[in-house]
Amino acid sequence: MKSPLLYLLEVLFCSGLLLAFYRLLLVRKVSFRACRRYLVAAVFLSAVIPALDIPLYPARTVVYPLPLIGAPPAENLVQATGEVPAAGPAVTSGWRRISRTVAVGGYLTAVFLSLGFLAVRMVGIRRLRRRSHLTDCGAYTLAEHPQIATPFSFLHTVFLGGGYEGRRRMIVLCHEASHVRHRHSAERIAVELVRSLFWFNPFVWIAGRWLREVHEWEADRDVLDAGYGLTEYRTVIFHQLFGYSPDMACGLNHSLTKKRFAMMTQFKKRRFALARLGAALPVVASMMLFCSFTVRPAEVPVSSHSADRHVATVHIGPGGTIAFNGRPVTTGELERFIAAEREKLSEADRAKMVVVIQADKDTPVDDLANAMEASRRANALRLQFRTDASDPGVDRMLPPDLSRLPADGKVKVIVPRVGGFEGTYKIEERNLFLVHIDGSGAVTAGQAFREKSVSPEELPALIRAFILNADDDPAMSEKQVKEFDLPGGGVMNCPVSEGIVLLDTAPGASFGRYLEVQRLIAQSFGSIRNDVSQRQFGADYASLAEPERQVVARAVPLKLTEPRLYE
User: Between the CA of residue 562 and those of 30, 375, 399, 445, 555, what are the distances in Å?
Assistant: First the structure.
């Protein structure tokens, strides 16, 4: 989302460009109607185009609405027994906060004053109409009152004072009827409303003045086309020159200039008028390209959870060679480079940093272990695995480095070992679901001492049944009913599984198989999250707003651990 200052600068740029185009190619060269419509459209387009945000996606980008594995540490490998401090948003300094408040307050005050003056003027015209003698003239309503010094029109009403007889009355009514017929007042109101919101934009004020000018030119032309003489009409205008009418109205009292008199005799519709109007299309298209379109990079697939993350890329090549952001590095240097990239970010953005690990499908998983460990030791815990730039990838959250945990005892970590499970967090046997990938890519899965060979397609259903434990089998995962506060108020009671999936991958297994199993594990948890989301909010998990999605993620935590991360 662009900043307010950038938006305002783009508004000034667009409005200035559109008015420059009008002055150079349209004024006095196309019809009055075309000039009017262009000016009104220019005022609105200059406000709308910078507000648009139209993303351009590379052709090969694949968008996944549901992140496959994207859980905070408390859902994966970290079990919190107390509040874990999180990085808060950056605090704006005092003077900046005060200046921003003053600027917003000044802007809103000017907007309300401008809209208030507009309302007062319109109410004054309405009161004058009520006090006047009204005559239905078909195309308009004639309101006559002695206090009206100068004739004017507003919407469908023509206001006329006393002393107008004969041809002078007919000329004046012809002029004002032209304003009514062409709906000049409605255009004036529309531009006034935009000007109230963008009062700081000088181009909007200029557009309003030019629009009033075109209105008068068009009404003058209609009077002369009706058969009234040029000299006679100019005499009537001189008589009205020192009169008064509300500035929201259309009348004969606008500044008399040589330009207006010249238009009565010199205006001729130029050739190629349609081509001149058509030339505005490339101008508008250019403004949209400059102000509205946002190019999303192809390097990292865009999802609802990763659009605002800072990304660093680690490429694992043949023989275990490593490149960090395209630069060859050694295994020993990788941790330092990841940490340096992380240090460039603010405290709030560091938690969003994603390390993308890319390798060919046939790369042994063991070659990735060093990159994962370097990222973990650099405290960059969000990973994304993928095989190439077009692969949407799989998101993972690593456990934190044990040596970097706070010493206050508030965080406890699952520490699996080959001979059992030891550490500060005790895992009951019934809460553990084992998934093993051997060197040939074969998969076995099940609870301890009940593992069996399975096909990859069977895995999501097995994990789902283990986590849900719909029959409350005492040999399967435990559940605890917990209460969650909902964003809009109220609470949600939901059974939360204690089940943990342990993924054990042999060093010779391929990265492609490892990635596939990771996806299937995520798919099982994702289906459970969708069920909870539909039941509580009536929508899929992917379509929820972020606060609602966080509630569902806490109710269905994705707990996944890998023994090789602790070896």
Answer: 73, 15, 10, 14, 22
Q: Among the listed ranges 21-30, 237-246, 517-526, which one has the minimum average pLDDT value?
A: 237-246
**506 within 8 A of 439, measured Cβ to Cβ:** yes
- Is the pTM above the cut of 0.70? no
In this prediction, residue 60 has a pLDDT band, given cuts at 50, 70 and 90, of very low
CA 379 vs CA 87, 402, 558: distances in Å: 14, 11, 20
For the beta sheet containing 250-251, the strands, ordered from the edge strand earlier in sequence to the opposite edge, are: 133-136, 141-144, 157-160, 152-154, 250-251
**DSSP structure string for 43-90:** HHHHHHGGG--EEE--TT----SS-SS---GGGTTEEESSPPP-PPPP
Residue 507's nearest CA partner among 420, 402, 436, 435 is: 436
For residue 144, list its beta bridge partners: 133, 160
State the pLDDT confidence band at 87, using cuts at 50, 70 and 90.
very low
Q: Is 491 helix (H, G, I), strand (E, B) or coil?
A: strand
Find all residues with CB under 8 Å of 526, minimum gap 6, and list them: 66, 68, 541
Kindly tell me the sign of the dihedral angle through the C-alpha atoms of 102, 201, 8, 112.
Answer: positive
What span, in angstroms and rounded, lies between the C-alpha atoms of 344 and 349? 10
Q: Is 435 in a helix, a strand, or coil? A: strand
